[in-house]
Amino acid sequence: MTSGEHSDGGKALWGGGFSENMHPALQRISFSMTQDLPLAIADLIASGVYARALAQCGVLSDLEASELDTGLAALLADFQSGAWIPDANAEDIHTAIEAELTARLGDVAKKLHTGRSRNDQVNTAFRMTVADRLTGILDDVRTLQSEIVNRASADMDTLMPAYTHLQRAQPVRLAHWCMSMFWPLQRDIERLLQARARALESPLGVGAISGHPFGIDREWIADELGFESVTQNSIDTVGDRDFAVEAVFACTMLNVHLSRFAEELSLFSSAEYGFITWPDSLATGSSLMPNKKNPDLVELVRGRCAGGIGDLVSLLTLVKGLALGYQRDLQEDKPPVWRSTWLAATGVQAMSAAIAGIVFNHPRLLAALSDDLLATEIADLLVVQGIPFRDAHSVVANIAAQARAHGIGLRDVAQHPGCSLPAPITAQMLSGLSHEDAVERRDSIGGTARIAVERQITRAKVLLSVTHG
Ligand code: ARG
Question: Looking at 305, 335, 367, which one is the last position of a domain?
């Protein structure tokens, strides 16, 4: 074994001046192959473009650049087909790729790292991979939004209670309830797009810390790799992980939304609500209780969100104490990103299946439309008669208290012995009440009247038609 080698024989890129081999304890915490594997494809693509940029600025001949570019493309194909498996004992994916390229092409591969550092290299592959994952999540969110719009459009006539404090509050259309899940996802789309734009600033060509010594054309590289802009300061660039934090935040906010939807669906599928039932393919049984059909899908979506919140905190904590430029701590930036993007993608896919698959129990929804949901409607009718809302509220509160005291519905107060209707409420006014009227009164933007919900759906469909590349 020569100096600068790892104890298992792997060669470090930087080992030339070292007289001892790496201590196994350092090696164990230093090597990052498992967490680096998702970077492999982007690193191979970026290296091919970098080779061509080196030829443009005269560091490589055209022939050398094309040998490297072809060799890297072959390596990429072999990686994707499984014909080349990166050495699990390499220090990192960049080392494994350079070692394999050198084994295949010989000396020309040793020129590829000219002017480049792993500091700008890892930042490049990381940004490309993050942008790619965000694109996948954007597509998944679009699918979930479409399922929501489908369910809303198909169920415009059904009414249900809306809840505040988990207590029945006012009647709404089921379609309105469905669409209440569309809009947070639309904000998630905006956040994911912003995070992707942030990731798509090209760092390649800033070197280790101070810039490129051979006048490389960073804008050309950025264009070739699909970046939208180039970073402006080499010191900032190699230590910048804002894009990763923002990507994880966008995913975490999305996961938190999914978790709230999950909680709602879980509640609604309990026997106490009975508003939805799960198809067998989306439910699980109990190993002991033969009667059970459990909503594990949504419980898992809700539970897995916890890890994603941890990932966001990990990443913010990782960067908060770092001096400017690259510090090796930054190697720990990848696991939180891989996990939270994976949690978001699989969580959204699970919720799409849930929204498409749940069965609404219409008789139960109808039965839940109790009289108390009409209390605000009575007050609103009094307002129409010219009574100030605060006075109307107090009159209706009186009826509601009587109904509660006798365990009867609001409309029954008119006939119930021992109850009396406070003026100006009449028995006729109470018997004329309907949930449908209460719903239809709320027809301004954001309301639950048919026209307002149809407006939402139309707007949602326009948003769904926008493509995000
Ligand atoms: N594996 C390292 C990382 O992910 C690559 C960068 C190493 N750079 C360095 N100066 N040691 O951060």
Answer: 367
Domain extent, residue 355, equals 119-367
Catalytic residue among 61, 229, 270, 286: 286
Q: What is the pLDDT of residue 73?
A: 98
Under DSSP, is residue 159 helix (H, G, I), strand (E, B) or coil? strand
Inform me whether the pLDDT recorded for 19 exceeds 90: no
For the stretch 237-272, pLDDT in tens is 999 999 999 999 999 999 999 999 999 999 999 999
Confidence of residue 7 (pLDDT cuts 50, 70, 90): low
Quick one: 340 and 232 in the same domain? yes
Q: Which residues of 4-19 are buried (b: 16+ CB within 10 A; e: fewer)?
A: bbbeeebbbeebeeee
- Known active-site residue 286: yes
CA of 246 to the centre of ligand 1 (A): 21
Report the residue count for the chain. 469
Q: Are residues 234 and 210 in contact, defined by beta-carbon separation less than 8 angstroms?
A: yes
Q: Whose CA is nearest to atom 5 of ligand 1?
A: 118
Contact 447, 173 (CB under 8 A): no
Q: State the pLDDT at residue 8.
A: 58
CATH code of residue 38: 1.10.275.10
Which atom of ligand 1 is closest in space to residue 326's alpha carbon?
10
**Which DSSP category does 417 fall into?**
T
How far is the C-alpha of 456 from the C-alpha of 175, rounded, in Å?
10
153 belongs to the catalytic site: no
Give me the catalytic one of 81, 165, 287, 465: 165
CA angle 433, 436, 442 (to 5 degrees): 100
Q: Which of 277, 270, 276, 275 is nearest to 161 (CA)?
A: 275
Contact 168, 185 (CB under 8 A): no
From 367, 396, 427, the end of a domain falls on 367
Residues near 152 by beta carbon (within 8 Å), at least 6 away in sequence? 174, 175, 176, 178, 179, 182, 453, 456, 457
- Of 331, 333, 338, best ligand 1 pocket probe by most atoms within 8 Å of the beta carbon: 331
Q: How many angstroms is it from 328 CA to the middle of ligand 1?
A: 6
Instruction: Enumerate the β-bridge partners of residue 294.
Output: 284
The domain total for the chain is 3
Could you tell me the two tokens for 188?
């998630």
Check residue 5 and give its pLDDT.
Answer: 62
- 3-state class of 349 per DSSP? helix
pLDDT grade, residue 383 (50/70/90)? Answer: very high
- Average pLDDT estimate for 335-344: 97
pLDDT of residue 2: 43
